[in-house]
Amino acid sequence: MSNSTLQRADGCSVFFSLIVATVLVFAFFILRQCLPSEELSPVDNRVINDRIKNVAAYRSEEGNFTEAIDRAHAEINSSLESVMLEIVKEYSSNKVSDSDESNGTGTEGGER
How much is the pTM? Predict the structure, then answer.
């Protein structure tokens, strides 16, 4: 039949696994140091000038966009303001006519 004793991990195999993992990690970093890495190409004046032109184009585009947004907001605000002023005039004229009617003067001339 089968052996019913508890199977335990051998301490030496765990220790050996840790040593192998440590060696592999160090080998990876040493290998990266030994292999030549790609050198970054230096930036020349042509690239710098192209970047400056792109930044200037983006800034002018941003300015145009901001101006368009400000104009749209100004139109919306002015149209809202004109509507609000018309409503205030309408309410004030209604208030004056209501107060005239409550005094008995009416709107026909103000005589009693």
Answer: 0.36
